[in-house]
Amino acid sequence: TEDPQSKLVLLKYVGDDYTNYMEERTRFHKWDFSLEILNTSRQDEQLYEYIVSKGPEETVWKIQLDVYEPVSDPSIQILGWAMANGSCTVTLNCTAERGDNISYSWGSRDTSTLGFCSHNGSILHLSYPLQNASIACACTASNPVSSRVVPFNSSECNERGGKSPVADPALSSLPVLLLLS
């Protein structure tokens, strides 16, 4: 004996007419045959079936819906820095407090400094000669539904004038919460 299977039908389209069984949760767009889930939540994350019946023939598509929380504004923390042999070396960590499946990347809008800033991952080891007065890098935190950018200006080494972040606890971690649109 087989176990009977039941399915929740969201919408039925027959001929040129349709019935939406969950009008408070879904909206059907007849012009492109799309079904919009309103106020998507984690409970909507599941496998859906899209079935088209034409006479005795039936075609079934399986669609996995993944629901992501958007990325929050990231912040940059200075993990360490050092000045030696005319160079500044800074280790930065970019993190976003909220969001699913977040990926991090570093870059620069300035093509002359792009080589210093290019990196995939949340941690950037930035090393540059002190004669470069300022290197502007930016961290991008993104996932499939959102993206947020936060800048970092490397003039930090010159401004600190040789003070160690350990000797000055107020400088040991400087979050940057600016958002570029």
Automatic annotation (TrEMBL):
Alphabetically sorted, this entry's keywords are: Glycoprotein, Membrane, Signal
Extract one GO cellular component term from the record. membrane
Q: Where is this protein chiefly located?
A: membrane
Which InterPro entries does its entry note?
Answer: CD2/SLAM_rcpt (IPR015631), Ig-like_dom (IPR007110), Ig-like_dom_sf (IPR036179), Ig-like_fold (IPR013783)
At the top level, the lineage of the source is: Eukaryota
Where does it localize? Membrane
Q: Locate the Ig-like domain: which residues?
A: 74-151
Q: Which PANTHER family match?
A: LYMPHOCYTE FUNCTION-ASSOCIATED ANTIGEN 3, SIGNALING LYMPHOCYTIC ACTIVATION MOLECULE
Protein name (record)? SLAF1 protein
User: What organism is listed for this UniProt entry?
Assistant: Pelecanoides urinatrix (Common diving petrel)
Q: What is the lineage of its organism?
A: Eukaryota, Metazoa, Chordata, Craniata, Vertebrata
